[in-house]
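Please, structure for the following, as tokens.
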Amino acid sequence: MSDTTRMTATAIAAAVRGGELSAREVASSALNLIAQHEGELHCFNVVTSEVALAQADAVDEKIARGEDPGPLAGVPIALKDNLCTRGVATTCSSKILEGWLPPYDATVVTRLIEAGAVSVGKSNLDEFAMGSSTENSAFGASKNPWDTSRVPGGSSGGSAAAVAAGFVPIALGSDTGGSIRQPAAFCGTVGMKPTYGLVSRYGLIAFASSLDQIGPFSTTVTDAALLLEAICGHDDRDSTSLRDTPTSFVGPLAEGIAGLRVGVITDFLSDADPLIVTAVRDAAGALASAGATVDEVAIPELMSGLAAYYLIAPAEASSNLSRYDGVRYGLRVDGPDVAKMNAETRAAGFGPEVKRRIMLGTYVLSAGYYDAYYAQAQRVRTMVANAFNRAYERFDVLLGPTTPSVAFQFGAKIDDPLAMYLSDLYTIPSNLAGHPAISVPFTLGEAGMPVGVQVFAPALGEQAMFRVAKAVEDAQQAGCRGPVELSAGASR
């Protein structure tokens, strides 16, 4: 069996389409590596071996019939376990949904199958996507393949770790406040949040509906662009889905960045680790050498995003998670009456972080506090979006760090929610504005852990964003990007 675990998604699809590899051969190679190391890393809540091989055989049969197998022909992919997959357990890493089998596929899942991708499993996450380390998963934390004593980030930590470990070349995550980009930075992968509405949310189990967006993890910027092409586009089943949006992202990568205007966000450089600040400045220098016009820009309003987010997101979570009542689906803990049954079910089914956010959200939406907290947070959200828009009058894209530090040790922040929330300080503003952003691995920082540089763009500015991200990737320092080499201990 050929080892295809170090190939990019683009290379795998080309080899399968060209008959150099079979989709089954690729799937078997991925499943073999997962079988060897999953017990050490816990990237997945469930590995769907039979589903993967059946999907791979379907791709091979299409090729044998002379049909187009799709742009992701035979490419293994991990799906975050908050994306509905028909007949496969979808849990959000919560006991309240343990064992729940959706009767339908999320739109992105349907589009991936149509594109020829092969799903190997559902990846672990912080419960209901609430967290920055996967330590909030009801089924145990995922580990960072670079150093298994450190977190992979969150909430999409399982997807990031699966790509970094070489289990799959691409994965899907969801990003509500940085849940794709932060773990991508921690694990040395590419991670991208699209413009809000560019990718359908139908079948994504909601956390905060005005902030959630599905996006790609990959080992290269080109693969991220290819995966976004496969999943983007209007969907009538999602009322927030945009019409008439760009759908080509790979082709424009060849245009380079000559003449593009790049603004370095100085407000994000004051509190970050010095090695991360150096990485951002080095990346900016590389972009200038590649032909971009680079200058600094102060956007102090962005620093207010964290406080606004932790009022808006819990408020929406309080509303969305009220459906888990022990009646319609999921866990049910019996009680003497309906109210007691509801309370006992939620007490047993939700973990501490989810309960914390539900209580906070319920409080800020309550009579007498709505205007003082929730409404004020929405005004700050508008202020952040307007500040971004003013910056984009001068610049085509913006540049900054993805995270204030490299991946931290397990247990370092789990008992200090504020310290944990600060991990998303530089990613949250894009969610509030609904704009795209991407994290690209650039160098190594403290303890030899990867450092991500973040490229921001205005709404539907993905093409320019990808071009700049590709230039950052081309200039990155050796050894900073996954997949990592797995040893018996699954750590570097």
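The chain has a mean pLDDT of 95. DSSP finds 15 helices and eleven strands in the chain.
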